[in-house]
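Hi F.,

I've been meaning to write this up properly since the lab meeting, where we talked about keeping a consistent format for the predictions we share between groups. The idea is simple: the sequence comes first, exactly as it goes in, then the structure tokens exactly as they come out, then a line or two of notes. No screenshots and no reformatting. I'm using this chain as the first example so we have something concrete to point to.
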Amino acid sequence: MKKFLLALGMATLLAMPTSFAYRFYAEPESDTAVSYDVYDVLDGKWETTFVNYANADGSNEYWLRVASRYDQTKLLHFLTITVDGESYRLTAIPFDSKHYYAGSSAITTRGDMGHNMHYASQSRYFPISADLAAKLAQAKEIIITYNTNLQINCDIRVNKDVIENLKKSLPLKYADFNNYWKPEDKRLKLQQMGKDF
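Output, unedited:
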């Protein structure tokens, strides 16, 4: 009986949602584009990534990537984002590889129970205008209203850490990339350890 209760307790701990702090990513996307991304699991349920796709020509594109955790809920084609009391309706764009791969370090593998301990729905991509991105970068309060086939008007307040990182990430340009992208150089590391490859 003790072994059964111990096993049940371990299984319960493993099945519990893991806490996940926000993350900031900087990633190369092509020879002429990079992305700066702020990821968080809002309310423990919504995998939300704000993407700043910065092009070498000085232009930027912005979008919000959203997936639902722990279920296979269908995210509807619209959501509302409220910035300091002013609401904006965003409509999803069709799936394409550019939006999928940009900031893909922040995409959870669907059904990867061993690593991520949960399932996630397919992501939706909601474009953000440059004007709205500028407001997000100055925001004091952001509320996102998610909608699914089973529930609508799911209001989630974006936490302060994410808002602070949006203030950092959204104004960044292509030329800023080397200040933020710091990958590990395996060849250099081996050389420092005195090994040949």
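Notes:
Helices lie at 2-15, 97-101, 113-116, 130-136, 160-169, 186-192.
The chain has a mean pLDDT of 83.

If this format works for you, I'll send the rest the same way.

G.
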